[in-house]
Specification:
By secondary structure, this protein is of the alpha+beta class. The chain folds into 2 domains: 294 residues, 3-Layer(aba) Sandwich (Aminopeptidase); 109 residues, 2-Layer Sandwich (Alpha-Beta Plaits), CATH 3.30.70. It is built from 10 helices and 17 strands. α1 packs across α3, α1 packs across α10 and α3 packs across α10. The longest helix has 21 residues. The mean pLDDT is 97.
Length: 412
């Protein structure tokens, strides 16, 4: 492992972590939080200092730029990363630290007695005798996705004077964690006109993703009939019981806690109610388009059953598409995937093809016809106070990105 490269990556990573950029699902603006605009402006300033071309930053906190290549005829390659970190109820302020793991339990925060126990986190074991980046336990680490931002910015710095690459386009977008909002709003033709692209999101060393959930959300509203309980017989319709009866029609084994691999689910994850109205929110997920359609149909069919069961009540359903499976966009041109496997092989990294039980910005771009597979940052336990990033894996993530650019240039 290059100590100079490791130092270059970690110092830049810590600098980006100092900018608070949690997204806010309750906000309707883009970006959802001002910290994302602050980070976007910082990145644009650094890109201009690196003398990239066509650097653009807008008031939606989207940054794009081009590093022109000298390999004529090489495919135009893109990297897209998100600048928001997730809000899971922890502190928005990230205090990173590097600890050396020698097989022992690790104290992340002595004041608050926050420990990472090896028995509870066996994913640590392969990284004995290594330096690992953690938060102080009061927040997520934010490797999702600032490790990727760091990889891409470092790549641009190191390749800017090299002659062995084609055009490299980059996009930094907001609000991935709350529905891929930034990627959905990105104008590919005007700002990210590439032959193929990559996300670098989550995932341990070697993980490759070109298959993920199709995703939708359902909002189900139950309107009851309020009445005083002393005279409610035959009149009162309880919307809470309508919602309860609705949920009871679904298989409790087809939920996130009971499924894995390519198994889909319907997850009821929010409920609000009073005597007049109840509201349910559900996440619908499936890798298979047929199964995905069937799950959405089931929501509507059960709603019709409940409406018939409570004729004086009312049931309304709204289903919104969130993202689609990257594999839906795979056609004859598989260069993005083939190059990724070639880069891993060149670096002697074993590929671990993973069906992602989630989505990346690449899912939004793939839905627009731009195939955008994902590869690892090297981090573990994202969306958790125990998120961590081995420095050696961080370096290898960078090396994969660099190798992709070099291999693409050979196709000129």
């Amino acid at each position: 492992m290059s100590h100079q490269l490791a130092s270059q990556l970690t110092s830049r990573f810590f600098r980006y972590l100092a900018v608070t950029s949690q997204s806010d699902a309750a906000a309707t603006s883009l970006p959802s939080t001002p910290g994302q605009q602050t980070l976007a402006n910082l990145l644009a300033e650094e890109l201009r200092a690196l003398r990239l071309e066509n650097v653009q930053v807008d008031d939606c906190a989207t940054v794009t730029a081009v590093l022109p290549g000298k390999a004529a005829g090489a495919p135009r390659i893109g990297f897209i990363t998100h600048i928001d970190t997730v809000d899971v109820g922890l502190s928005p302020h990230i205090h990173p630290q590097i600890l050396r793991f020698e097989g022992q339990d690790l104290c992340l925060n002595s004041e608050q007695e926050i420990w990472l126990r090896v028995a509870e986190h066996p994913e640590l074991v392969p990284y004995q005798h290594e330096e690992i980046i953690f938060s102080d336990g009061t927040s997520v680490l934010g490797a999702d996705n600032k490790a990727a931002v760091t990889v891409v910015m470092t790549l641009l710095e190191n390749l800017r004077d090299a002659a062995t690459h084609g055009d490299i386009l980059v996009a930094f977008v907001p609000d991935e964690e709350i529905g891929l909002r930034g990627a959905k709003a990105l104008d590919l033709e005007k700002r990210f006109n590439v032959d193929f692209a990559y996300t670098i999101d989550c995932c341990e060393l070697g993980e490759v993703v070109y298959e993920n959930f199709n995703a939708a959300s359902a909002d189900i509203r139950f309107t009851g009939v309020p009445a005083h309980p002393m005279s409610g017989k035959g009149v009162l319709v309880n919307p809470l019981l309508m919602a309860w009866d609705f949920i009871s029609h679904f298989d409790r084994r087809q939920t996130p806690e009971h499924t894995a691999g390519r198994e889909g689910y319907i997850w009821f994850n929010e409920m609000t109610a009073n005597a007049s109205e109840a509201r349910l929110k559900a996440s619908i997920r499936d890798f298979n388009l047929t199964g995905f359609a069937q799950r959405k149909q089931q929501i509507n069919e059960v709603a019709a059953l409940i409406a018939a069961q409570y004729p004086t009540g009312k049931v309304e359903v709204s289903i919104s598409e969130i993202y689609s499976n990257i594999s839906n966009a795979i056609g004859e041109d598989r260069r993005a995937i083939d190059l990724l496997f070639a880069a891993l092989e060149t670096l002697n990294i074993t590929a671990k093809v993973t069906p992602m039980r989630g989505g990346t910005d690449g899912a939004a771009l793939s839905a627009k016809g731009l195939l955008t597979p994902n590869f690892f940052t090297g981090a573990h336990n994202f969306h958790s106070r125990f998120e961590f990033l081995p420095v050696s894996s961080f370096v290898k993530s960078y090396q994969v990105a660099e190798q992709l650019c070099l291999l693409a240039a050979r196709q000129a």
